[in-house]
């Protein structure tokens, strides 16, 4: 496991946690990490298709993870109803 994976896990966890707070959905640490990382993948695809460029580095990944996790949680709330 390289430093890239460790950083992705930490940043994904923070992004998932922040999105959970904003969307008023609480999950455990593991689920926050998964939601943040999957959210970052979703946001990356959305941003690329819309030709939107986010700053690089950990801050860019955090923003992408947060936005994507919010999208993911919004869809999950719609499906849950």
From TrEMBL:
Keywords: Cell membrane, Membrane, Transmembrane, Transmembrane helix
Bilayer disposition of the protein: Multi-pass membrane protein
Cell compartment(s), UniProt: Cell membrane
One Pfam family linked to the record: Transgly_assoc
Principal location listed in the UniProt entry: membrane
Keyword Zinc in annotation: no
Domain of life: Bacteria
Coiled-coil region: none
Transmembrane segments: 6-22, 29-47, 59-79
Similarity section: Belongs to the UPF0410 family.
Protein name according to UniProt: GlsB/YeaQ/YmgE family stress response membrane protein
Organism of origin: Neorhizobium phenanthreniclasticum
Organism taxonomic ancestry: Bacteria, Pseudomonadati, Pseudomonadota, Alphaproteobacteria, Hyphomicrobiales
């Amino acid at each position: 496991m390289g430093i890239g994976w460790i950083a992705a896990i930490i940043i994904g966890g923070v992004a998932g946690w922040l999105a959970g707070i904003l969307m008023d959905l609480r999950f455990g640490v593991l689920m926050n990490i998964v939601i943040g990382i999957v959210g970052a993948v979703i946001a990356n695809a959305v941003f690329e298709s819309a030709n939107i460029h986010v700053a690089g580095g950990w801050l860019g990944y955090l923003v992408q993870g947060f936005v994507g996790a919010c999208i993911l949680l919004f869809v999950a709330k719609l499906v849950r109803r």
